[in-house]
Design a protein that fits this description.
Blueprint (H helix, E strand, L loop, with lengths): L9 H14 L21 E6 L5 E4 L4 E9 L3 E4 L9 E2 L4 E7 L5 E12 L5 E10 L18 E2 L4 E4 L9 E7 L6 E3 L5 E3 L4 E4 L5 E10 L5 E11 L8 E13 L2 E4 L2 E4 L5 E3 L9 E8 L6 E8 L1
Parallel strand pairs: 2-8, 9-16, 19-22, 20-22
Antiparallel strand pairs: 1-3, 3-6, 4-5, 4-7, 7-8, 10-14, 11-12, 11-15, 13-14, 15-16, 17-18, 17-21, 18-19, 21-22
Length: 306
C-alpha cells in the first residue's frame, strides 16, 4: 500500500498539503536564473557594419547610415549606442539592417555604434564601429586648394610645391591651356614637370605667361580644380657675357641640368649634348657655355658626360 509523505509526522504532512492547495490553479513564472555554460561550449558571435565598412567609417552630418548586424548562438541582441534611438533597446532579430541618420554636428574624434548580444548562459558578446562625422570625408567637404606659383626664368632651375587642405594625402595633376584655342595640354610649360605629390621642378625653356589648370585629389578620391598663372621670364639681353668651361664630377642631376664643381649647368635642344652612357651622379661632365653673372648658372653650348 502506497503511503504519501512516508516518514513525515502529521504536522509536516498537514503543512505540505496546505501549501499545495494554496498554489493550486496558479502558474509560477520560470526562474530568471540562466543555466550554467557547458564546458567547451563556444561563446556567441556577433558582427557589426556601418555602410558596409570596417571598424572605422566616415560620414557627413545628417548622412544616412546603414547599420547591419548578425549573431549566432545568442538569445537576443540590443542596440547600445550611436545614432540608434532609443540607444539601449532590443533588436527585433539576430540579424538585419536598419537605416539611421548621422548626428547633425561634426564629431571628428568619432562616436561608437555598438551592439551587444546575450546567450542562454547570460554571456555577453559585443561589437563596435567608430563613426567619424565631419570635415574631409566625402564630396560635401570643401578641399582647400588655391595654388600660386612663383615666377620662373628661362634657363634657370626652378623649384616649387603645390599644397591643399582637407583629407590628405593629396595627388596633384596639371595641364597648360593654349591661349589662342583654349585647348588644355597635359603637363606644365616646356622644361617643367609636376610630380604627383605636388613638387614642381625643372629648367623652363620658353618664356611667357602660362595659364595652368591644376587639380588636387584627396584621400577619398574627390577632386577639386583651380587655375593659376605661371610667369616665365626671359633672360635680359647681354646677360651672358662670361665664357665658362670646365670638367668635373657630377654631384647632382635634375631635369635638363647637372651640378658639377659647384656650378649649375643647364642644357636644352640647342646644346651639343653627348651622353652615350646616360647622365648620372658620379660621372664626369665636360662643358662649355655662357655663365649668367646674376645667377651663376651656366647655359651650356656643349656638354659631354663620360
Amino acid at each position: 500500500m502506497f503511503t504519501p509523505f512516508r516518514g513525515c509526522t502529521p504536522l509536516v504532512v498537514a503543512a505540505l498539503l496546505s501549501a499545495a492547495c494554496a498554489d493550486s490553479g496558479r502558474l509560477t513564472a520560470p526562474s530568471a536564473r540562466a543555466p550554467a555554460r557547458d564546458v567547451g561550449t563556444a561563446a556567441p558571435s556577433v558582427t557589426l557594419t556601418v555602410n558596409g565598412g570596417g571598424s572605422i567609417v566616415t560620414a557627413m552630418p545628417g548622412d544616412p547610415l546603414a547599420v547591419g548586424w548578425a549573431s549566432s548562438g545568442s538569445l537576443y541582441c540590443m542596440r547600445m549606442g550611436g545614432p540608434w534611438a532609443p540607444a539601449l533597446s532590443y533588436l527585433p532579430t539576430l540579424s538585419g539592417t536598419e537605416t539611421v541618420v548621422a548626428p547633425t554636428t561634426s564629431m571628428s574624434t568619432g562616436y561608437a555604434v555598438s551592439v551587444d548580444c546575450v546567450d542562454a548562459a547570460n554571456v555577453h558578446t559585443s561589437a563596435t564601429v567608430q563613426v567619424n562625422v565631419g570635415v574631409g570625408v566625402n564630396d560635401k567637404t570643401p578641399i582647400g586648394f588655391s595654388p600660386s606659383l612663383p615666377a620662373a626664368v628661362v634657363g634657370t632651375p626652378y623649384s616649387a610645391r603645390l599644397s591643399a587642405t582637407g583629407l590628405g594625402p593629396f595627388t596633384f595633376a596639371a595641364g597648360t591651356i593654349t591661349p589662342t584655342t583654349g585647348v588644355m595640354q597635359p603637363g606644365l610649360p616646356p622644361g617643367l614637370t609636376l610630380s604627383s605629390d605636388g613638387a614642381v621642378g625643372g629648367v623652363p625653356t620658353a618664356e611667357g605667361d602660362f595659364r595652368l589648370a591644376l587639380t588636387a585629389t584627396d584621400a577619398t578620391g574627390i577632386t577639386r580644380g583651380a587655375n593659376a598663372t605661371l610667369h616665365v621670364g626671359g633672360v635680359a639681353s647681354g646677360s651672358f657675357t662670361i665664357v665658362d668651361d670646365g670638367r668635373a664630377v657630377i654631384t647632382a642631376v635634375g631635369t635638363q641640368y647637372v651640378v658639377a664643381a659647384g656650378r649649375t649647368i643647364v642644357y636644352d635642344a640647342a646644346t651639343r649634348l653627348r651622353a652615350d652612357n646616360g647622365i648620372a651622379v658620379g660621372r664626369t661632365a665636360d662643358w662649355r657655355g655662357q655663365r649668367d653673372p646674376s645667377t651663376g648658372v651656366v647655359h651650356a653650348d656643349r656638354l659631354e658626360v663620360r
